[in-house]
């Protein structure tokens, strides 16, 4: 294995903020993750179900799940964060996850927020709700968020869906920018990066 292959790689952590196993926001997140993997970036996944509900709800900062969460965020070069918008705010589950991070956990990382909601008006929840929280966590390089309405993303009972062409274009443009800013030209994804989920309480919430 070449020196480049051993040393130059980018790790991206995709965090799903939806409590549902079949959500529009997670469909967009999976699509973004797939593009990044095709660009040669190693992508790990984390969902609300990867943290025991009791620890998440009670904010067990010193718990094993929180420690594992912080370690995975610290190891990432970039972070994708998706959330549904409820009552003009991003999901409470995602807020609980972010509350377990250190104050500057996102410093030096490229961050791409993704959200879905019932109407275009809920775009403000992304701009004035989620982004300030990401900034408070030290993020200074937040890419333009991708927001889609429920009508633009269709998901069936199996979690398979269709993304509106305009939303798909915006998402792919944002992911391309993240890829360019995260992975140096010519770099190769590291073979040994752990793509597994946290071995705590099940899999990735989709």
From TrEMBL:
For this chain, the family text in UniProt reads: Belongs to the SsuE family.
Q: What is this protein called?
A: FMN reductase (NADPH)
Q: NADPH-dependent FMN reductase-like domain: which residues? A: 11-151
GO MF annotation: an example? FMN reductase (NADPH) activity
Q: Which residues form the signal peptide?
A: none
Which PANTHER family does its entry note? FMN REDUCTASE (NADPH) (PTHR43408)
Domain of life, per UniProt, equals Bacteria
Keyword annotations of the record: Flavoprotein, FMN, Oxidoreductase
UniProt keyword Oxidoreductase, yes or no: yes
Q: Please name the GO terms of the biological process aspect recorded for this protein, alphabetically.
A: alkanesulfonate catabolic process
NCBIfam families associated with the record: FMN_reduc_SsuE
**What's the EC number here?**
1.5.1.38
């Amino acid at each position: 294995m070449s020196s480049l292959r051993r040393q130059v790689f980018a790790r991206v952590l995709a965090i799903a903020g939806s409590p549902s196993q079949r959500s529009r926001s997670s469909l967009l997140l999976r699509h973004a993750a797939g593009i990044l993997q095709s660009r040669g970036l190693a992508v790990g996944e984390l969902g609300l179900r990867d943290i025991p509900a009791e620890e998440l709800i009670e904010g067990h900062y010193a718990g094993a799940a929180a420690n594992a969460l912080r370690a995975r965020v610290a190891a990432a070069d970039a972070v994708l964060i998706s959330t549904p918008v409820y009552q003009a705010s991003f999901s409470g589950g995602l807020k609980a996850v972010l509350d377990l991070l250190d104050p500057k956990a996102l410093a030096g990382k490229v961050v791409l927020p993704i959200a879905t909601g019932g109407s275009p008006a809920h775009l403000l929840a992304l701009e004035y709700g989620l982004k300030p929280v990401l900034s408070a966590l030290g993020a200074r390089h937040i890419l333009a968020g991708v927001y889609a309405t429920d009508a633009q993303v269709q998901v069936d009972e199996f979690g398979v869906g269709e993304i509106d062409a305009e939303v798909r274009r915006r998402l792919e443009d944002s992911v391309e920018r993240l890829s360019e800013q995260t992975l140096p030209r010519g770099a190769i994804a590291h073979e040994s990066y752990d793509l597994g989920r946290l071995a705590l309480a099940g899999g990735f919430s989709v």
